[in-house]
Amino acid sequence: MQATTPVAFSPVSHNSSSQAKPRVFSQQKKFTYLGITIESTTKLLTNILISACITSALLKLLPHYQSIQEKLQVIESEIEATTERLNNEKENFSRYFDPSQAQTIMQEQSNRVDPNQIPIIWLENNDVKPNSESNSSP
C-alpha cells in the first residue's frame, strides 16, 4: 500500500485590490441603507407628529363645532317661527287695507254695531214661550 500524502491546497492568490473592493462596497451599502433608514424614520416620525397635531386640533374643535350646530338649529327654528309670523302679518295686512273689508274690521275691533244691523240674541228654549199660547189665552 502506498501511502498517500495529504494534499495541501495552496491558497488561491487574489489580487489585494479585489479583496479591498468588497469591503468598501459593503461599507458603502451599509451607509446607503443607514441613510435610507434614517430618512424613512425621520419621515415616519414627522408624519406621526403631524398626525398627532391634527388629531389634537380636531379634538379641540369638536366641542366648538357641536355648539355652533346647536346655535344653528336654534336660529333655524327662530327663522321658521318668524317666517310663519311674517306670513300671518302679510295676510292681515292685505285684509286690513282691503277697502271692502274696512267696515267688518272696524266692527270686529270695536263694540259698535252698524245701525242697519239688528242684533240677534239667542235664548234657551225654557225661557221662551211660544207666541200662539200667549195670543190664545182668554
Walk me through this protein's architecture:
This protein is mainly α and 138 residues long. Helix content is 69%, strand content 0%. The radius of gyration is 54 Å and the shape is rod-shaped.
The percent of residues in helical segments reads 55-70%
Give me the Rg, rounded. 54 Å
Number of strands: 0
Topology as H/E string? HHH
Task: Work out the helix count.
Answer: 3
Low-confidence segments, given as residue ranges, are none
Mean pLDDT reading: 80
Percent strand: under 5%
For the termini, the CA-CA separation is 182 Å
The largest pleated sheet is described as: none
Describe the structure concisely.
With 138 residues, this protein is mainly alpha-helical. The chain is built from three helices and no strands. The chain has a domain of 89 residues.
Show the helix and strand layout:
Blueprint: H1 16-96, H2 102-109, H3 131-136
Task: Name the descriptors.
mainly alpha; rod-shaped
